Amino acid sequence: MSMVVAGAAAAALSMGGGDVGVRESLRDRFPAAREAIEKQWYDFSSSREFVPFRPGRGGADLAAEFKAIVTLQRESLALPQYAFAETPDNSNSTPCRPFFYNVTKPGYNASTLFIDGNYYIAGQSPQAEELSLFLGLMREAKVTHVVRLTSDIDVADGKSIDYWHGKVTRDGDKEVFDATDKGEPYFVNYYAIDGWGRKDATSPEALLNLILEVRDDLALARSRGEEPLLLVACTGGVGRTGSFYAALAIVSAIDRAADSFSIEEIVQNLRQQRARSVAHDNQYEMLHRLAELYLERKEIS
Q1: Is the domain 10-300 a CATH 3.30.70.100 member?
Q2: CA distance linking residue 199 with residue 283, whole number of Å
């Protein structure tokens, strides 16, 4: 089956159609979100020192470090500059909601992120009554790539609908997700990790492999002059989704051959953009193991 995948037809998407102005408006909001994110980060980080990454640290040491991150954010959320945006009542919990300054689509639980010079979206998987909003978000923001971290376990627990079932097909050597809801067909590049529980870590190797695949696909699109946009979603859009974006930033830091980088700093930065990103200490430890694994691969190659 021949299909048009978002991003490959970016120019066509910007031409014609009655709702083009609406679709363009979400990306029009990105620069203001970036400005607010950068100000929040400057205010938060300018007087702080972050722990540099060091291979081989134990789980107890990392758990204590993560506990301090959680405590600091809990205290920070009482400040007025961290007000949350309004989202539907069925958002999983208040700390999983977007901040008012970088909500991607008013009325839906998703945040615009700015990481290493590129925009991304972190969001909550939809319930049945939110499906049209979720698909509309993809179209209106011109999402080109989506990573699904929600699992069938989450569906069984009532945390999400199985929005992907029957909507994923192969196009050549890649999978695509049919995000068509109303109007013209709309397909996005699709990736997933199955079986990753809400409060759990996943295999650092599996996560790293997915990160590298998505990174390379986004880089290829940018090399072609396209403007790809990645959406990552799990039930709350913070634990697994935050871990994915933290891992992406870690890989980027290692690829830059930085003399030193800080996973604590990366996580703190993400939490300034979406509260509770990387939600559990086992996920924080997983990120350190992923960094160790990637450094080993780089040394071997």
Answers
A1: no
A2: 8
